[in-house]
Design a protein that fits this description.
about 450 residues, CBS-domain, elongated, cell membrane, transport, CBS domain, cell inner membrane
């Protein structure tokens, strides 16, 4: 083979190798969501690429046959084409034997560099940049190759399947998209500036609805404003003025015997019409939704949807009322910092290394604020106050503290055994070991 013909053969082999490299990476890197969108837009080749991704064995077998055959031929043709010419060139300065060796090494380096640059690095970077676009473009020629090499592909494919079967390795790709995949994508989008940090946090909060219990969003028992069934008009008016809420439970005797709820809109309408407020009116008191305290927020939302209500009373396993929750409470959990006035914030950052946190703050919010993955015995409590009780093994008192995860949790204020405020401070390395201290 003459020198020009050898160079043409090398160029052709490089193009073939580049084609196989591009076909391999574009199929592997193609995103199924993008391919489905291409199919919806009318590109039928995208559907065929999706099917190949589900069972890519024959496709990759053809690529490996082509790449290995081209690599071997490239070495043979390159050595025969360049070595004699380079040996004669180096023979001007070196003896014949040395010139032959140097010429061979130079030929090997040149051919290897050409293949690495133009048949490997360049096409693979091209395929990574727009994998879906190139996957549909190389589909037709790859299908021709698969038909042409059917017997060889069948042999190598069956042999490979047998090896995988003997090793017990799964060959089908799992393309199910999990919540972790979606969260990872949104976090990447936030880092890239495509999503605002607050928007990314809202998406993360939505996925937490399945794991957060209703206790993390409810109004605690001691903060509930309620009416007794036999409260007179003046008591009802005074309670509304003192504790304005949109909904009030109506109880018989005490808070643990809820008989219904009354909507503030109905009360205001009667006040404007100069009517007496009486909770014995059956049209004024509505049937209340009672839910257990172990339900998740997602389950509570589902119950709201089924009964067309936006208010529920939460009871524990002893049928004692532990709190109330509204649809707005659940949505505030999802929206996070995007809603709610500043004076109601449960977590206030004082400076770089300290936070003032309300005792009833859900533990998930505390973890997020402090960038902690978990707290010990996290299945035994829902709030920061619960964490301190579990760690101290008693009802905390002022100045009691717990050290964990590089932070000191110190009780600042206790009101009737209820932890009102906790100071959380970042510890130095010497004081970061886990401990519980009391008076």
């Amino acid at each position: 083979m003459q020198f020009p013909e050898s160079l043409f053969a090398i160029a052709l082999l490089i193009l073939l190798s580049a084609f196989f490299s591009l076909a391999e990476l574009s199929l592997a890197a193609s995103r199924r969501l993008r391919l489905r969108q291409l199919a919806v837009d009318g590109d039928m080749r995208a559907d065929q690429v999706l099917k190949l991704q589900e069972s890519p064995g024959d496709y990759f077998t053809v690529i490996q046959i082509g790449q290995n055959a081209v690599a071997i031929l490239g070495g043979i043709v390159g050595e025969g084409a360049l070595t004699p010419s380079l040996a004669r060139l180096f023979g001007i300065w070196l003896d014949s034997s040395t010139a032959q060796t140097v010429g061979f090494l130079a030929s090997f380096f040149i051919v290897m560099s050409l293949f690495i640059l133009f048949s490997d690095l360049f096409p693979k970077r091209l395929g990574m940049a727009e994998p879906e676009r190139w996957a549909v473009r190389v589909l037709t020629p790859m299908q021709w190759c698969m038909r042409l090499l059917t017997p060889i592909v069948w042999f190598y494919g069956k042999t490979t399947d047998l090896i995988f079967k003997l090793l017990g390795v799964e060959t089908v790709r799992d393309d199910r998209i999990t919540s972790e995949d979606i969260l990872a994508m949104t976090e990447a989008g936030a880092r890239a500036g495509l999503l605002a940090a607050s928007e990314q946090q809202v998406i993360a909060n939505v996925f937490e609805l399945d794991s957060r219990t209703v206790a993390s969003a409810m109004t605690q028992r001691e903060r509930i404003a309620f009416f007794l069934h036999d409260d007179p008009d003046e008591v009802i008016r005074a309670r509304i003025a003192e504790e304005p809420f949109s909904t009030y439970p109506v109880c018989d005797g005490d808070i643990d015997h809820v008989v219904g709820y009354v909507d503030a809109k109905d009360l205001f309408q009667r006040v404007l019409n100069n009517q007496t407020l009486s909770l014995s009116d059956e049209q004024l008191v509505h049937k209340v939704l009672i839910v257990p305290d172990r339900l998740t927020l997602a389950e509570v939302l589902d119950q709201f949807r089924q009964v067309h209500e936006d208010f529920a009373v939460i009871v524990n396993e002893y049928s004692l009322v532990v709190g109330v929750v509204t649809l707005n409470d659940v949505m505030s959990t999802v929206m996070g910092d995007l809603v709610g006035p500043d004076d109601e914030e449960q977590i206030v950052r004082r400076d770089e290394n300290s936070w003032l946190i309300d005792g009833v703050t859900p533990i998930e919010d505390v973890l997020r604020a402090l960038h902690l993955n978990e707290l010990p015995h996290d299945d035994e409590y829902e709030t920061l106050a619960g964490f301190l009780m579990v760690m101290l093994r008693r009802v905390p008192r002022r100045t009691d503290s717990v050290n964990f995860g590089g932070y000191k949790f110190e009780v600042l204020d206790v009101d009737s055994y209820r932890i009102d405020q906790v100071m959380v401070s970042r510890l130095t390395e010497t004081g970061a070991r886990s401990s519980a201290e009391g008076e």
